[in-house]
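Supplementary Text 2. Reproducibility record for the structural model of the 222-residue chain.

All settings were left at their defaults, and a single model was retained for analysis rather than an ensemble. We include the record here because the model underlies the residue-level annotations in Supplementary Table 4.
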Amino acid sequence: MNCFVGTAALLLIGTPVLAGFIAEDIPDWRGDANTVWYEWESFTSASAGTGPNFPTNEPFPSGQALLFNFGEGAMISGEQNIYGFGGPLNIHAYAYTDSDVQEVVGNISMYGTEMLYDQVMLAWTDGIEGGESGMLFGAPSVNYWEEVDFGAGVGAIANVSYAFDLSGIAADVREIGLFVSTAGPHSSLDALVLDIATIPAPPVAALFALACFGRRRRSVTG
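Retained model, structure tokens:
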């Protein structure tokens, strides 16, 4: 069982429509060995109670990445965005890996009431119940921002990215969660992308050899 997961039409007239990211910040290592990326550009579930949203760049979702909204009063808009009509959005995008996570880049495209930029965080665990875990906060890189009157007050069209360096974490990170919340109702999540870089786990034979070396060394010094 994954540790993290265990724990109407759009009504506003004149709301801007986004086709996707305006200026997506793609890391230069995307497509390299030991990297993966997940993209959500259309959504089918407005709340965690109705299930997860699977990445739209995977033809057959495997459950390796899931996105939920834990905010109340949300709906799926006519553009298949998650629209916080009755309250703020509380977005959690999770990903699970088979090797140690080193870097994560998250891109978020949103309009309407703005997200809480300084509260976006990355939570991580080693994937073991009761194991090691922690969280990191990232400074936002604003790729695009435009003030807009979206019908329920002044908001913005925003495309913001965050980079997280996990290479200094001693734990073997296997699960990550990007958490994004907004300042109030009338915000619309248009798209979100997670890029993840990992390092492969040592082969079993190598681990066995290291263990044997350690035992021989102790017998010599002991």
